[in-house]
Design brief:
Distance between the termini of chain B: 66 Å
Largest sheet of chain B: none
Number of helices of chain A: 3
Order of helices and strands of chain B: HHH
Strand content of chain A: under 5%
Helix content of chain B: over 70%
Helix content of chain A: over 70%
GO molecular function, one term (chain B): sodium:proton antiporter activity
Oligomer: heterodimer
Shape of chain A: elongated
Structural class of chain B: mainly alpha
Membrane topology (chain B): Multi-pass membrane protein
Structural class of chain A: mainly alpha
Number of strands of chain A: 0
InterPro entries (chain B): MrpF/PhaF-like
Number of domains of chain A: 1
Keywords (chain B): Antiport, Cell membrane, Ion transport, Membrane, Transmembrane, Transmembrane helix, Transport
Largest sheet of chain A: none
Distance between the termini of chain A: 62 Å
Protein name (chain B): Na(+)/H(+) antiporter subunit F1
């Protein structure tokens, strides 16, 4: 493994670490359940995809093989993480978690108390 | 040099998990806690990938897939429980 390959792998993994830290600080500091969900679902997804891409490149440079399990993990997280974020945010809205006090508009308010 | 960078990455993932634990303890509503648990699992996946690079082994690669599937299924089940009160519904007319 050459030094250039090591630098490429380390850059991808450090980008992933940076995005995960940014999303965790967003989860700590944002005022609302929905904004925290926004921070957690998007930035963490891109961070873990970048880290897994660095792992895939490491095993490609180290053994000469592209492992299909890491590739399948990247595709799985890219497909399922936004769906999970959407569904948990919809459950929060339907179960009555209040919005932040700085909210200026709530377009879904009319659909909230429809009897089923 | 790359070992030092990977160890730093592991420490920073641990800090991210600790901040998500703060949100689980402090969080005012249940969806906050579910989102933070999902974030913990995703950071754990990244940590396992970094550990498998650090140990130069490919024995941990199934763990990535299985943790991804488990995080998705548990988040769906918990959000369905929050929204409707049941996870697996009964049939109406049988």
């Amino acid at each position: 493994m050459s030094a250039t390959a090591e630098i490429i792998v380390a850059v991808f993994i450090l980008i992933g670490v940076f995005l995960s830290l940014v999303s965790s600080f967003g989860v700590m500091r944002l005022p609302d359940a929905y904004t925290r969900n926004h921070a957690a679902s998007k930035s963490t997804t891109l961070g873990v995809m970048s880290t897994l891409l660095g792992t895939l490149l490491f095993f490609y440079f180290y053994e000469g093989i592209i492992h299909s399990r890491i590739l399948l993990g990247i595709i799985l997280i890219f497909v399922t993480a936004p769906v999970a974020g959407h569904i948990i945010s919809r459950a929060a809205y339907n179960s009555g978690v209040e919005l932040s006090e700085r909210t200026v508009q709530d377009d879904l308010k009319d659909t909230k108390n429809i009897p089923k | 040099m790359i070992e030092m960078m990977l160890s730093t990455a592991l420490v920073l993932f641990a800090i991210a998990i600790a901040i998500a634990l703060y949100r689980i303890i402090r969080g005012p509503s249940i969806p906050d806690r579910v989102v933070a648990l999902d974030m913990i699992v995703v950071n754990l996946i990244s940590g396992i990938a970094v550990i498998s690079v650090l140990l130069k082994t490919k024995a941990f690669l199934e763990v990535i897939l299985i943790l991804g599937i488990l995080a998705f299924i548990s988040t769906i089940a918990l959000s369905k429980f929050i929204e409707r009160g049941v996870i697996i519904e009964r049939k109406r007319n049988r």
